[in-house]
Design goal:
single chain, 491 residues, 3-stranded antiparallel beta sheet, 21 helices, 53% helix, 12% strand, globular
């Protein structure tokens, strides 16, 4: 409809369609029209008063109102305000909605999307901060799958880096095999926090940690054996939380998988003359793009986040031939991904355009950043269990004879947590509040679930097959209904 209107206006003014299209806008108030063409930009070009131009457009469109599906065209102070015929527009849109399976267009057919999300760090509890990437990523997965994409869900585990050198040092100094087997990931977290406290007075601990990580990088049997053990313990922890959330992944290839691919990446970057030495490290100079250097290997030759992520991009493109690759991570990693994507571009790969960072705001606790190092943390499993318990208490109070109380409590409680995360503006920082997350009143997950259950109950009581074909379009042209229809597919 918009294209047809632009063609007619272009003929009236003797201009190109594109010159009209870029100026057409949606008025801030629907009482001013469904579309508006400001004519001030044409005044100099046509050597005419904007009000006169608006009047000319009105006359031309009035002659083709029925053909274009318009109801009224007004010339107001240099604007041409256009009102569409609500009945015709509603009929056209809703017929298309039914044809497209209630508004779902299969735009992703024969296309593949890789989605990198959740990605917790090994040997650390799954905390409330990880919930954001997990819930947002899973929602995006469901949307893309519904649109027909083949989605590869990747859990890029944080299972490599100097922090594991720290953990090995901490384990050898302050823990034992028996303690780790008894307490699991909680013991690993305790000794990790202890290490970070102790290194303030004993900086030599960091030298030991770096030495152990270098051993890992060079395939030391003892170092890798301890690391693998820590990893196995962590996966059990993560899977328990994922099961509660009803979330699964297609790949758990973490950072460690790509460390062996970094030497080949280094050689490739050298061939492309992109690698330079800086203070003993190998980097890609990004100063021309107002970014700090993208480090590829450290002074000791070990890999780093940038190099492993670049290697991961190249591997995923080769293995999955993705059409798009999404990274759902915190806003604080924006610079990191800008550097990685720019490196891919400088290497000559045009698919850098299909790499997308989906950032989200940080979660804080009482205004302080969540930190495993300091122990300022709330665990995801504790949140989910508390949500289920509160739902159980509510059921006991209001409907104690309900069948499958435990299952319903799980659905309502975990639904409340998921809804709270998705309801908040994605890019906004969130201060964690038990009261807000677990609230069952107002605009919350349980309220949405309750509304859905009532609607399903009405349909069951109706007892007949529902026909989604609309026949009375007159009932849907009120301001609120029409605003919703325009929101689905605007002109």
């Amino acid at each position: 409809m918009k294209e047809e209107i632009c063609k007619v206006v272009a003929e009236i003014l003797g201009l190109s369609d594109s010159e009209i299209t870029i100026l057409i806008e949606t008025p801030p108030d629907s009482k001013m029209g469904d579309m508006a063409i400001p004519c001030f930009g044409f005044a100099k070009l046509l050597h005419k008063n904007p009000a006169l131009i608006a009047t000319e457009i009105k006359k031309g469109l009035d002659q083709k109102k029925n053909q274009l599906g318009l109801d009224e065209v007004l010339s107001v102070n240099g604007y041409c305000n256009i009102f569409v015929n609500r009945m015709l527009f509603t009929e056209k849109v809703l017929k298309q909605v039914v044809k497209e399976n209630l508004g779902v267009e299969k735009i992703g057919n024969n296309k593949t999307v890789c989605m990198d999300y959740s990605s917790p760090n090994i040997a650390k509890n799954f905390h409330v901060g990880h919930l954001r990437t997990t819930v947002i990523g899973n929602a995006l997965y469901k949307i893309h799958e519904k649109l027909g994409y083949k989605v590869v869900r990747i859990n890029h585990l944080g299972d490599w880096g100097t922090q594991f050198g720290k953990l090995i040092v901490a384990y050898k100094k302050w823990s034992s095999k028996e303690e780790v087997e008894k307490k699991g990931i909680q013991e690993l977290l305790n000794i990790y926090v202890k290490f970070n406290n102790e290194k303030e007075e004993h900086p030599e601990l960091m030298d030991e940690a770096r030495d152990w990580f270098v051993k890992m990088e060079h395939g030391d049997e003892e170092a890798l054996s301890i690391w693998e053990w820590f990893k196995d313990i962590s996966i059990v922890e993560f899977e328990r939380v994922y099961d509660m959330l009803g979330i699964s992944f297609d790949s758990y290839t973490g950072e460690s998988f790509y460390r062996e691919k970094v030497p080949a990446l280094v050689e490739l970057l050298k061939e492309k003359k992109l690698l330079i030495e800086s203070q003993g490290a190998n980097v890609i100079d990004l100063s021309d793009y107002n970014m700090p250097p993208c480090m590829i290997t450290k002074k000791d030759g070990s890999s780093i986040y940038h190099s492993r992520d670049i290697a991961a991009v190249l591997y995923r493109k080769e293995k999955y031939n993705f059409d798009k690759c999404l990274y759902v991570t915190g806003l604080e990693q924006s610079l990191h991904f800008k550097q990685v994507f720019k490196a891919i571009e400088l290497m000559g790969y045009d698919f850098y355009k299909e790499l997308v960072h989906v950032p989200y705001g940080l979660v804080s606790l009482d205004g302080e950043k969540l930190s495993t190092r300091t122990g300022n943390i709330i665990y995801a499993e504790d949140i989910l269990k508390e949500a289920i318990k509160r739902a159980e208490d509510l059921i006991e109070e209001k409907n104690p004879s309900l069948d499958n109380k435990e299952e319903v409590a799980k659905q309502v409680g975990i639904g409340a947590v998921i809804f709270h995360d998705l309801f908040n503006q994605r890019i906004k920082n969130i201060n964690f509040s038990w009261k807000e997350v677990l609230s069952f009143d107002g605009t919350t997950g349980p309220y949405v679930q309750y509304t859905y259950a009532r609607a399903k109950s009405i349909l069951r009581k109706y007892g007949k097959e529902i026909q989604y074909e609309v026949t009375d379009y007159q009932a849907l042209i009120d301001d609120i209904s029409f605003a919703l229809i325009k929101n689905y597919r605007w002109i």
